[in-house]
Structure formats: C-alpha cells, structure tokens
Design brief:
By secondary structure, the protein is an alpha/beta fold. Helix content is 29%, strand content 24%.
Length: 468
C-alpha cells in the first residue's frame, strides 16, 4: 500500500470533524447521536473564537465596562456614588476567565458524554483526501468536515514587527490598564475594544485607513457611531497612510499622514484589529486536491460542499460569513443534508450581524448604498432614538432606526438599528424579511408599551422614496 492509503494501523471512522468552533462540536454531536463513529480534532480549546477569544469574553468585558460607565454617570439618574469609580482589571479578567472556563468545561463534558464521539487533541493535517494525521495517528473516514476558524492579522506597517502588538486574543489577558491604547482598525472589533478600554479609564486613539469608521455601513451610521465614541473621549484619525512604527515594551510611537498632514501618536500599547485570516494554510490541503482562494478561504457551494466529494468546509474557513451565528447555521445545513437528505442552503439565510458598542448597532440585508449602486428603487424610513419613550426614560437617546422597503412588493430589504436594545429589536424585522411579509403586517401589529419595538410601526409610517 502507498503512504496515502489506509493501513491496519489507521483508525477507521464514519466522520472526522476538524476544529471545535461553533459548527464542529454540534455537527459532531448530531452525527454521533445518529449512530456514527466520529472523531472531533481540536488543537487548542473547544468553543473556538466565540467562546475563547470572541463573543463571550468580549461581551463579558463590555458588561464590566458598561457598569463602570453607568457608575460614573449615576448622577444623571439621580443616584450619587461616593468617591471615584475605579476598575480592578485583574478582577475584570478573572470574571471573564471564569465565564469562559465554565462554557468550555460544559462543552467538554457534553461531548465526552456522547457514545461514539471521540475528542482528539492535537493538530490535524491531511495526508490524503480522506486521511487525517494527528500526532502520528492516522484517522480515516468517508466524510470530513473542516471547521478550523480564523486568526487575527496585523497591518503590514514598517517597524510593526519591532514592537509588542496586541490582538483581540492577547488584549484580554491584560491585568493592568493600558495608559494609552492605540487601536489599529476602526471597524467592528477595533471599535468594541476602543470603547471598552476607554470606559475602563484608558486613553484611546483609533487609526483607520478608510475615510470613515465601519466603512461598509451607510455614511450616517459611521458618523453617528464615531460621534458617540468621541463623546466618551476616544480620538480618531481617518484616512491614515504611510504609517511608520517604532518603540519598545511600554512605549509605541506611530508616525503617519492623513488629509490634515503629518501626524504622530505615542501610546503604551498597540492593538491590531484590522481583520482575520482563515486557518487553512497548515491543514495539508494539497493532499486532498483542494486549493484556497486568494484570501485563504476554501471555496464551497451553497450546501458547503468543497470540490472534493465527501469534504465540507464550515464557519470562518469558507468565506460565507465569519460570525458565530452563520457558523452554527452552517452545521444545520450540513447536518440536514448528511443525516436527513434534506436540501438546505446558505441561500436561505439573510445576512445579519451586530456591532456591540454600547448602544449596539444591528444590521441585516441591503444597505442604502448597496441599493443605490444596484440602481434598485426603495422606500426609506428613519427615526431618531430620541423619539423612543424607552430611550428617553433610560436617558440613552443616541442613535436612530433605519429601514429599507421594496416599493412594489412592500417587503423589507434591509435595516440598521443603532440604539438601546437594537440587537434584540432587529429580530422582529429580520423575521418579517425572512418570511416575506409586507411591512404593513409589522405596522399593524400591536406592540407592548413601553418598549423600543413599539416604535417600529412609526418607523414604517415615515417611509419615503429613496432620493438620488
């Protein structure tokens, strides 16, 4: 037999899942519960980015930061706090670590309790299309599912390799507060950390190469988010170019240009938040015959099948949406096909996501800019959060609601909600779009008072043709 062929020493299985992120464990469990012999391979920690370095720990920090922010502003609500509000970063980190550890532990116990499912620790690498080697052991199976996630990248700025650089993973390991955190990247990850550490008490400066923050959003959203964060004391430099980095531990200096001319920022810490890259370059994909695209993603069809029969790619590695919720939905699509013979597809989901600054931005579907670029007519409705009674009662009126509607079908095309509870309210509109309902059906629904959602009928009442 050739090296690529299975031998008597190989471990024969029905399925191999590579990666323990948001798709992998749940798919592995579904397969095992259906009577399959399954191995799930994880080289680090179960739960992937979301549980260990993303959603769960960051939102735990967001909660701590909000507590500090509210305490400092307590007098606004007629509550007086004696003395200065201080933040114990070691205690904040310990709380974050405890929340993460509990989730990882629960996941490990659950997977360990399932008959037919084996957790294999180590780095998986293909040696043939259906043969995976892990620390000298070769696993073979007719079905292989890749869910290896992604990792942060750093900007290619001259001198950046000479200074310590934090990522979304390492910044949360700090037990002391940065004196001045410089954030490279004014998009979703960067802005969340910028607000969190500003509320903890650090000086924060954000550098963004685009001409506005979260540049994929409509301009008025970018402006409102930036203004909201500037009110909290965060400094922004936009249209950044020609960056030069120098410094050492405890001191970093960035020289750059903007439209205003030469600029210089000195900080204590540098956080790189300019994007992520899929973990596909060390999987031995050449042994399968698969190739990645220019960005490192594994091409898949709408049912997440790769070009090699019996191999699927799920989550961050397939380029179909690098979110926890899309990764989980990937596992549902694959499980439906593999276990039930049902046809499910990525075409059935509406792109939706949120930026968890406080208050949050929730988004789904098309933006106004996208509709304009496509030459598609639309009705646009906007409503400031200052019109929402719940927001005024809470004294948090920043933001606005925006919805886009097809004038012929009356179906919702997209929405952007920036304000308190936006990340929850958005789901009513998302469901209406997914179900193909007319906006009038939402408008006629009797909502509970007092809530944020009760202003949705008013929002639809403000619809007018998109100009320009």
């Amino acid at each position: 037999m050739s090296h690529a062929e299975a031998t008597a020493a190989d471990t024969a299985l029905d399925a191999i899942v590579i990666g323990g992120g948001q798709a992998g464990p749940f798919l592995a469990a579904r397969l095992a519960q259906a009577g399959r012999r399954v191995a799930i391979v994880e080289r680090r920690r179960l739960g992937g980015t979301c549980v260990n370095d993303g959603c769960m720990p960051t939102k735990t920090l967001v909660a701590s930061a909000r507590a500090a922010h509210v305490a400092r502003r307590a007098a606004h609500w007629g509550v007086h706090v004696e003395g200065a509000v201080t933040v114990d970063m070691a205690a904040v980190k310990a709380r974050k670590d405890a929340v993460v550890a509990q989730s990882v532990d629960n996941l490990e116990k659950w997977l360990g309790s399932l008959p037919g499912l084996r957790l294999v620790r180590g780095h998986a690498r293909f040696v043939a299309p259906k043969v995976v080697e892990v620390d000298g052991e070769r696993l073979t199976a007719p079905q292989v599912f890749i869910n290896t996630g992604g990792r942060p990248v750093r900007p290619a700025w001259p001198g950046i390799d000479t200074v310590p650089v934090l990522t979304n993973e390492t910044v949360m390991e700090l037990e002391t507060l940065p004196a001045h955190l410089v954030v490279a990247g004014g998009s979703y990850i960067g802005l969340e950390f910028a607000q969190v550490y500003r509320r903890f008490g650090a000086e924060v400066t954000v550098l963004e190469v685009a001409e506005r923050v979260i540049a994929r959003e409509d301009p008025e959203i970018s402006r409102e988010v930036q203004a909201m964060l500037e009110e909290e004391g965060i400094t922004f430099h936009l249209g950044v170019r020609d960056v030069q980095v120098r410094g050492e531990a405890g001191r970093v200096e960035l020289a750059f240009h903007t439209a205003a001319g030469a600029q210089r920022v000195r900080g204590s810490h540098l956080l790189a938040a300019v994007g992520r890259r899929p973990n596909t370059d060390d999987l031995g994909l050449a042994a399968t015959g698969l190739a990645t695209d220019a960005r490192g993603f594994i091409p898949v069809d709408d049912e997440l099948r790769t070009a090699v029969e019996g191999i699927w790619a799920l989550g961050d590695v397939n380029g179909r949406g690098a979110f926890t919720h899309t990764s989980y939905h990937d596992h549902e699509i694959v499980a439906a096909r593999v276990l039930d013979g049902a046809a499910r597809s990525t075409r059935e989901r509406v792109p939706a996501y949120a930026l968890f600054v406080d208050p949050p931005l929730a988004r789904f579907g098309a933006s106004e800019a996208e509709l304009r670029a496509a030459g598609r007519p639309a009705l646009v409705g906007t409503l400031p959060m200052s019109r929402v009674g719940r927001a005024r009662e809470r004294g948090e009126t920043r933001g606005f609601m925006k919805v886009l509607v097809d004038p012929a079908s009356e179906r919702i095309l997209g929405a952007a909600l920036l304000g308190i509870e936006a990340d929850e309210v958005i789901h009513e509109l998302l469901l209406a779009m997914q179900a193909g309902l007319s906006y009038r059906q939402v408008q006629r629904l009797v909502h509970i008072h007092p809530t944020v959602s009760e202003l949705l009928p008013t929002l639809f009442g403000a619809l007018e043709p998109m100009r320009g």
